[in-house]
Amino acid sequence: MSQFLKQSTAATIMFGPFVDKTDGVTLEVGAGIITSIDHATTGIFLSKNGGAAAIRHQNVTASALDAYGMFKVTLDTTDTNTVGTLDVLMAEAATFLPVHKAFMVLPANVYDSLMGTDLLDISLAQWLGVAPLALSSQKVQTTAPTVTEIQAEMEENGASILDTLRDDLADGGRLDLLIDAIKAVTDAIPDAGALTDLLADIASILTDTGTTLPGTLTTITNYVDLIDDVTNGLAAIKAEVEGIGGVAMRGTDSAALASAWTAALATALGNYTAARAGYLDNLSAGAAALEATLTAIKGAGWTTETLKSIQDLIDALSAFVEGMHDLSAAEVNAEVVDALGTDTIAELAQGIPAATPTIKTAIMLLYMALRNQLTVTSSELGIYNDAGTKIAKKALGDDGSVYTEGEMASGA
Known about the structure:
The protein is an alpha+beta fold. It is 43% helix and 16% strand. The chain starts with a strand and ends with a strand.
């Protein structure tokens, strides 16, 4: 096996053994051997990485006898300046048999990594399969970058994630369209004036007289029941609205989200349109007839106090809708900007990264690979979380002509 030498670095090698040319056994240890080795034109020849042999660089350091026919020979930085094989050759037919010794000259980083404490440089082009984007100081940082540094890094690279988000927030972008759709839904909610008219209609029932309208009252009862409905009632609407802040808006899912929200509002609030108010206009039987009709529908116990409770419930609905009515595109946009600039993202758990991740999952995987510990062996690349647990890994392979990376798997 060839011995290793460090590129462009002087080294003292053991060269020999020198044996007598007559019997091939007797060791040559005389001072004349040193003269022959260090001769300026006929001394040691070098062949660098398969090149033609030539006399070694002159102004040599004098060689010295060691033991058993071996001599200490100094190679200078010029002698070791070429990476690859280095053949050291010496021949003097009249005195000793030819002597040859082979060495392997390694780049400084490789040599220091094998023989010292240096770390082997790894090309990110081999890791990613393509040339990587520019990194800070041309290396993976060992400390967490600031938000400004991350933004500057991303903005240097054309179609970055921030560019995509800006495009989505721009007029006609996906997030802009979603905001417009949400505003369109809230604009369609009946205003306080329509609810005031409804309350006035109910108040007129308490003092009006005339014939009863059982069918209309049955419809009203159904609407009242709907208010407390688990699926489509006020509680369901409130849950839908409060859940907007935590919903992950991903790609073209925005259209589906707007559609689902619109359907929920239409189902629950559509009961209070002008047509519903028309039913109330037909109630002219008066309080006594109304109470009798309600008792026939729902049983004993319905009184004017029952209607007052309905009115109180509608008052609460009016206040709730009034609070939602003025929601603007700017307010929704402010919430989105806050989520992007203030909210933090948790580290990924150990597991197989998804093939179709959310934006925040994809960003966190890249961030963890850049910020946290990263190990690379001849067969595996590992990505770790801040606590030092390997969350994901990739199998590596190299048959000498093709470098391959397997699909990322769980770090378990």
